[in-house]
Amino acid sequence: MRAAAWAATPAIGLYLVLRSLSLDVMYVLASHAHVRAPGKEVFPDGTINNQWRSFTSFMDALLSWDARWYTKITELGLGGPLGAVDSDGVPYQLRLMFFPLYPWLARPLTYLPFVSPVAACLIVSFISAVAAAWGLYAIGRHLHSHRVGILLACVWALAPAAMTQNGAFTESLFTALAVWALYNVLKERWLIAGLLAGISGLSRPTAAALIGTVGLAALVAAISRRGGWRPYAAMLLAPVGLLAYIGYASYRLGGVGKYFEVHQNTFGAEWDWGKSAWTTVTDIMMGVGDDNGNKPIRILSVLILAGFLILLALLVSRAPWQLTVYAAATLILVVGSRAHISMMGRHLLPAFPVLLIPAVALARAKDRDLVILLASMALLSGWYAGWLPFISGQAI
Question: Which GO terms describe its molecular function (predicted)?
Fold first, then answer.
């Protein structure tokens, strides 16, 4: 462990430098935007009426949308009598729509002196991001080289919506679990892979992509008679967390149907076989639909999706099939569910295997050119992180 941590130090260090540079740019842009348009309404206030409010600082972006729910759950827990509402007028049952692992990890930190729920969430995100960067380095080194491992962590730091890695969101936590689970799949350490996949099911519903990938890889190993009884154990462990939480939430709400009904009616989240994504993308490409059909954020989101598809196609023949299956399954879950198009970058962020393609390409560059390119991309990532919430006023 000590040797592995030491080898990953350059990757983690560069990851932190790039994220710091991006956040600095985001801070400057947010401050400028606030001076130019202090009354611009950007974020919902988290009450039952979901009134929009203006921003005050770049922290608003790191603590907006889903992050407002996670900080609230960290402070007050998942509990509360069904049918009742909290101090903001929000029904307690809505908290059950958010998976508990992230606030569970943050809540104990709030018992420490001077650690608020917000600080606790950001600490968990920071530790998770470092763990994810370490895991990305491990996979890149395992498949290619030390240099590719470092650059894989760097590219993930610069991906669209990378700002959520540092906010009170689950992207860093789930990516860390996914990276290390898949690393152990490649190493055929089935018990660890199954356990991590099982834990990931408590973090977010799209963990189904990881669970399915680990289960399929374990099944192939079992059929090939590799690993003895361990692949069978991995197949049993992988879905435990996801099934357990959906079962618990459904029991509290009075049935599985009620659970998905609340998701659909309150948050507009439902499986629609990609209908909404297809309609949105085609409308944007043809310049039809609502009055904002050509809004830049919508066009950028389509470009992000197109870029992901290209990288996924290139990944097929350049990486182990387990990584390709996981990335493809993540894409299917993201595109197949109804969500605002501007959330595409955040939802695809855990699909890290596609970043192997640019990481390998960058590894061929000279050090001087690489420094210039990475720094430029960090500035661009910081601009996008500030422009998306503060200027475009779109969902993160």
Answer: alpha-1,6-mannosyltransferase activity; GPI mannosyltransferase activity
